[in-house]
Amino acid sequence: MDTDMIIELRDVRQYFRINDRLTIKAIDGISFGIQRGEVFGLVGETGCGKSTVARVISGIYHPTEGEVLFQGERISGRHHSKVQAQNLQHEMQLIFQDSAASLNPRMTVEQVILEPLRIHGRKDIRANSKARLESLMHDVGLSTSFLSKRPGELSGGQRQRVAIARSLILNPKLIVADEPIASLDISIQAQIMTLFQRLQRENGFSFLFIAHDLSVVRFISDRIGVMLHGKLVEIAPTEELFTNPIHPYTRALLSAIPIPDPIFERSKTIQYYDTKMPLGTTMVEHSPGHLALE
Amino acid sequence: MCQSVMHLLPPYAYIKHGTMSVCGQDITNYTEKQMRKLRGSVVSMVFQDPLATLNPTIPIGKQITEAILKHQKVSKAAAKARALELLELVGIEDAANRFDLQPHFFSGGMRQRCVIAAALATNARLLFADEATTALDVTVKAKILDLLLDIRKETGVSIVFVTHDLGSVARIADRVAVMYAGKIVELGTAEDIFYDPRHPYTWGLLSSLPALAIETGMLRYIPGMPPPLLYPPPGDAFAVRNEYALAIDYEQMPPMFQISDTHFAATWLLDERAPKIEPPIKLRERSGKWTQI
Question: Residue A1: what pLDDT?
Answer without folding.
Answer: 46
